[in-house]
Specification:
This is Malto-oligosyltrehalose synthase. By secondary structure, the protein is an alpha/beta fold. Helices cover 43% and strands 15% of the residues. A hairpin with a 2-residue loop joins β18 and β19.
C-alpha cells in the first residue's frame, strides 16, 4: 500500500470540473502533494453542490466532465506521479425521482428489484414526505392532480414540477380513464392504492418508513450490509480501484452503516490490500478506532481537537468563561445544556426513530413475556440515548464486543444513579437487549433493536452537539468544532503530546486535518479565535463597548431583545474570525462582499440554535431583527464602530497568524498524513458551509507559490498574504517526500523547555534510525507582539532553552526554513529565534 505523504482536498461541482482539476496538477506537484483527495464524483441530483446526494453510484457526474473528463484528470495525475483518493458514500443515496433505483421503488413498491437496496420498513407504505402540507390539504387546494409525466408519458401525480409515477397495476389498461380523474375522492382512492404515501415534510420526524441520513429526508439509507446491494453500489468504485485510476477511498459517515466492521472487511477484501482506506468517524474523549478495522485511520477531526491543547491558554480561559457567563446573565451549565439539546433531538427531530426503537423493545418484551409499561420503557430508552458519550457501539447479531459491553455497563450505571434515573427494571431490560442477553426466540428482534439503536446514537450526538449546542453556547467559537468536546476541560500541551504518541501507535497513517468541507470555520479563523483565551478581559471590554455603540439597532420584541447580549457576543466573535486580514473600514466593496457571507452565516446560526427560530418554523420577525443588526455592523455608514473594531482586532489578527503557522507546522510534522483543504495552504477565514465550500482563487495561489527558490521570508507581507504559510507547507512537504519513513514511523519525542518563556513553546522531535527532526513552535504569544510580525523578537526568547535527550544531542542540523546549518550539544537556546515563526531542524 502506498501511504500518501500529503493529500489535497478539492471540492468538485460549482464550477470545478475534472479538466480544471487536471490543470492544477503542476501546482499541486510544486506544493508537495502526493494525492489529490476528491469530493464525491458520482452522478448526483441536478444542481447538487456537494455530491453526497448520489443518484447513480455507477456513473461519473456528467456536469463535471463525466468518465472522459475523469480519465483525463487521472492521466494528468499519473503523469506527475500523484495519486487519487475518492470520497465514497455507502450509507445513503438521494431519495429523488432522479435516482432510477429510488424511482423504481416508488413506482413498484416491494416488487421493485431495488426494494431491498434501501433501508425501508415495508410493513407500511413507503412515505414520501415532500409535500408542503398533508396530501388531503394539497388535494383540497388543487395543488395535486393526475397528469402524464412529461418524460415518460405515463400517468403520475403532478405536484408542482414533480411527477410521482403511479404503480402500473393502478392504471395499465385504463390509462385514458385515470388521466381524466378530477374527482377528489377518486384521486384520493387512487393515492391509497399506491405503494407509497405522499405526505407533508413536516411529518417526517415523526412518521417515516425509511432510514434517512441524519434529519435529511432527501437522503435514504442504503443496505450495503447486503452483499448484492454492496456489489450494485460499488461496481464502478471497485473498477476504478482495480484499474489503478484510484489509489484510496474515504468512506463517508461509516457510523451510519448497520455493521461498519463487516462493511470495511468486505471493502478491503474487494478493493485489495493496496488500497488506502480512511473513514469519516468522530471519536469521543478517550475513544479509539477499533483495532480490528482494516483501514489506515480516520479523516482527522480528532487531530483538530488535539490542537486546542496547544493553542488555548488554560490559565486564562476561566476569565473568558466568566465574561461569557456575565453576558448570558448566569453561569452556563454545559451538562444541562447538552442534556436539553439531546432531549430536543430525541423528542422532536428524531421522534420517529425513537418510536421505532420503543416499538421494537416492546415487541421483545412481548416475546419474552416481560410485563413492562411502554411509558416506562420509553423513559428508560430516552435516558440511555441521552447519556451515550460516543457516537455509537459496534454490536452485531451476536451482541456487543467486550469493550462496548464495558462501556454500556458504565453508561447504564450513570443513568441508574443520575438525577433523572428511570425505572431500573426498564433500564436493565434495555441493556440486556443491547448486550444480546435475551431469549433465543427474541434474538432476531434484539439484533434489529441493537442495529437501530447504534444507527441513531450517532445522528443524535451530531445534531445535539455540532448542530445545536455549538450554536447555542458561544464562549469561544474556536472550541465549537466538529470532534471537539462540548464539556469544559483543562487544556495542556502534555495532553497533546500524549495524544500524538497514541496517534503514532494506533493510526500513524490517518489523515490530519485542520479544515474540511464540514468544519464550522476555516483553520485560520479558528486559529485567530483561540487567541481570545489569551486576552479575555480585553475581548470582553471590546464586546461591551461595541454593544453600546450599536445598541440603537437592537430591536425589542415580545420575547426579548433581538439580538440578546449572548447572541451579540457570538456575532462579534464570528465577525472577528472571518474578517479578512487586509480589509480596511473604508473599503465599501470589501465590506459588501463580507456582508453577504456573514448574513448567510447569521441566518444559519440562529436556526441551528433552535431557540427563537429554526429551519422548520422560522421566526421571520426575529430573524430580520438580528440580520438587520448584523447588516448594520458592516454598513459603510457605521464608521465609528468599524474603525474601532478594525483597530481592536489587530493584535488578535497578529497572534492568530502565529497560531496558524504553528498549527500548520505541527500538522506537517506530527504523526499522521497532513491533509490540505483547498485554499487553506494560504489563509482560510471561512465560515460554516456553504461558505467553506467556496472555490479558492487558484490562479492567485499559483502566483503566490511561484519563485519558491529560496527560504520563505518572514516579512510582514509574507505573513499577511498567506505566502509564508504556503511556502512553509511546500518546503516541509518536499522533505516529507524525501523522508517518508521518518514522518510515518519515526518516534514522537516530547521536548521540554525551561526558562522565562518555557510556557510559550511547544517542542517535539521525530526520530527514526539516523534521521531526526526537531520542531519548535511558538504558542500563547498574544502579549509579546508589538505591531509587526516581521520584528525579530529575539529579546522575548532570551533565557529560554530546550534540553535535548542523548538521542538528539551532539549532532549537526539544518534549519529547513532558513537553510542554516548549526551544531547542537545538549540543548537549544532560543535567544536567536527568528521572530514568531517555527524552527524546524533536520539532522544533517
Amino acid at each position: 500500500m502506498k501511504i500518501p505523504t500529503a493529500t489535497y482536498r478539492i471540492q468538485f461541482r460549482n464550477g470545478m470540473t475534472f479538466d480544471r482539476a487536471a490543470g492544477l496538477v503542476p501546482y499541486l506537484e510544486r506544493l508537495g502533494i502526493s494525492h489529490l483527495y476528491a469530493s464525491p464524483v458520482f452522478t448526483a441530483t441536478s444542481g447538487s453542490t456537494h455530491g453526497y446526494d448520489v443518484t447513480d453510484a455507477n456513473e461519473i457526474e456528467p456536469s463535471i466532465g463525466g468518465r472522459a473528463g475523469f480519465d483525463r484528470m487521472v492521466q494528468a495525475l499519473k503523469a506527475a506521479g500523484l495519486g487519487l483518493i475518492l470520497d465514497i458514500v455507502p450509507n445513503h443515496m438521494a431519495a429523488s425521482l432522479e435516482n432510477p433505483w429510488w424511482r423504481d421503488v416508488v413506482e413498484k413498491g416491494e416488487n421493485s428489484r431495488h426494494a431491498r437496496h434501501f433501508d425501508i420498513n415495508w410493513s407500511t407504505r413507503l412515505t414520501l414526505p415532500f409535500l408542503g402540507d398533508t396530501f388531503e390539504s394539497v388535494l383540497e387546494n388543487h395543488e395535486i392532480a393526475v397528469k402524464p409525466d412529461p418524460n415518460t408519458g405515463r400517468p403520475a401525480f403532478a405536484y408542482h414540477d414533480t411527477f410521482y409515477p403511479l404503480a402500473p397495476e393502478t392504471w395499465v389498461g385504463r390509462e385514458a380513464e385515470v388521466l381524466k380523474l378530477t374527482d377528489k375522492a377518486e384521486i384520493a382512492e387512487l393515492h391509497r392504492r399506491q405503494p407509497y404515501r405522499l405526505m407533508s415534510w413536516r411529518d417526517a420526524p415523526r412518521d417515516l418508513s425509511y432510514r434517512r441520513f441524519f434529519e435529511i429526508t432527501g437522503l435514504a439509507g442504503v443496505r450495503v450490509e447486503d452483499k448484492a446491494v454492496f456489489d450494485d453500489t460499488h461496481r464502478l468504485i471497485l473498477e476504478l480501484v482495480h484499474s489503478g485510476a484510484v489509489d484510496g477511498l474515504r468512506v463517508d459517515h461509516v457510523d451510519g452503516l448497520a455493521d461498519p466492521k463487516a462493511y470495511l472487511e468486505l471493502l478491503r477484501q474487494e478493493a485489495g490490500p493496496d488500497c488506502y482506506i480512511t473513514v469519516e468517524k468522530i471519536l469521543g474523549k478517550g475513544e479509539h478506532i477499533p483495532a480490528d478495522w482494516p483501514i489506515s485511520g480516520t479523516t482527522g477531526y480528532e487531530f483538530i481537537a488535539s490542537l486546542s491543547d496547544v493553542l488555548v491558554d488554560d490559565e486564562k480561559i476561566a476569565a473568558l468563561r466568566k465574561a461569557y457567563d456575565d453576558v448570558v446573565g448566569k453561569p452556563v451549565d454545559m451538562k444541562a445544556e447538552l442534556r436539553a439539546a439531546k432531549l430536543l433531538m430525541a423528542d422532536r427531530n428524531f421522534a420517529g426513530e425513537f418510536t421505532t426503537l420503543s416499538m421494537l423493545a416492546m415487541a421483545i418484551a412481548g416475546t419474552e413475556g416481560a410485563a413492562l409499561d411502554e411509558k416506562v420503557v420509553r423513559s428508560a430508552l430516552r435516558e440511555l440515548l441521552v447519556a451515550f458519550p460516543v457516537y455509537r457501539t459496534y454490536g452485531t447479531e451476536e451482541g456487543l464486543p467486550p469493550a462496548d459491553c464495558d462501556m454500556l455497563r458504565k453508561v447504564a450505571e450513570r443513568v441508574r444513579t443520575g438525577a433523572n434515573a428511570p425505572a431500573p427494571e426498564a433500564l436493565d431490560f434495555l441493556t440486556r437487549i443491547l448486550a444480546g442477553e435475551v431469549a433465543n426466540s427474541a434474538s432476531g428482534e434484539a439484533a434489529a433493536f441493537r442495529t437501530r439503536f447504534q444507527q441513531l446514537t450517532g445522528p443524535l450526538m451530531a445534531k445535539s452537539v455540532e448542530d445545536t449546542l455549538f450554536f447555542r453556547q458561544n464562549m469561544d467559537l474556536a472550541l465549537n468544532e466538529v470532534g471537539a468536546e462540548p464539556m469544559p476541560r483543562a487544556f495542556s500541551p502534555d495532553r497533546f503530546h500524549a495524544e500524538m504518541k497514541t496517534r503514532l501507535e494506533r493510526q500513524p497513517d490517518a489523515l490530519s486535518a485542520t479544515s474540511t468541507h464540514d468544519t464550522k470555520r476555516g483553520e485560520d479563523a479558528r486559529a485567530r479565535l483561540y487567541t481570545l483565551t489569551e486576552a479575555p478581559e480585553l475581548w470582553a471590554a471590546c464586546v461591551t463597548r461595541w454593544r453600546r455603540m450599536n445598541q440603537s439597532n437592537v430591536t425589542v420584541l415580545d420575547d426579548g431583545p433581538a439580538p440578546k447580549p449572548a447572541v451579540a457576543w457570538m456575532l462579534y466573535q464570528a465577525l472577528a474570525g472571518v474578517w479578512p486580514v487586509t480589509l480596511h473600514p473604508e473599503n465599501e466593496a470589501g465590506l459588501k462582499a463580507l456582508e453577504a457571507r456573514f448574513l448567510d452565516f447569521v441566518e444559519k446560526a440562529l436556526r441551528e440554535a433552535k431557540l427563537r427560530t429554526n429551519w422548520g418554523d422560522s421566526n421571520d420577525t426575529y430573524e430580520k431583527a438580528v440580520l438587520d443588526y448584523a447588516r448594520h455592523l458592516l454598513s459603510p455608514a457605521n464608521q465609528a464602530f468599524l474603525r474601532d473594531f478594525y483597530h481592536a482586532l489587530q493584535p488578535f489578527i497578529r497572534a492568530g497568524l502565529v497560531n496558524s503557522l504553528t498549527q500548520t507546522v505541527i500538522k506537517l510534522t506530527a504523526p499522521g498524513v497532513p491533509d490540505i483543504y483547498q485554499g487553506s495552504e494560504a489563509l482560510n477565514f471561512s465560515l460554516v458551509d456553504p461558505d467553506n465550500r467556496r472555490e479558492p482563487d487558484f490562479a492567485a495561489l499559483e502566483r503566490l507559490l511561484a519563485g519558491d527558490g529560496k527560504p520563505a521570508a518572514t516579512t510582514e507581507e509574507g505573513w499577511l498574504s498567506g505566502r509564508l504559510k504556503q511556502h512553509v507547507i511546500a518546503r516541509l512537504l518536499r522533505f516529507r517526500q524525501r523522508k517518508p519513513t521518518l514522518f510515518r514511523r519515526g518516534d514522537y519525542l516530547p521536548l521540554a523547555a525551561t526558562g522565562k518563556r518555557a510556557e510559550n513553546v511547544l517542542a517535539f522531535a521525530r526520530a527514526e534510525s539516523d534521521d531526526a527532526l526537531i520542531v519548535i513552535a511558538p504558542r500563547l504569544v498574544f502579549g509579546a507582539l508589538h505591531g509587526s510580525l516581521a520584528h525579530p523578537y529575539t529579546e522575548y526568547w532570551a533565557q529560554t532553552e530546550i534540553a535535548l535527550p542523548e538521542r538528539l544531542a551532539n549532532r549537526r542540523y539544518r534549519d529547513i526554513l532558513s537553510g542554516e546549518t548549526i551544531c547542537l550539544a545538549d540543548r537549544i537556546s532560543l535567544a536567536s529565534a527568528d521572530g514568531c515563526s517555527s524552527v524546524i531542524l533536520l539532522s544533517a
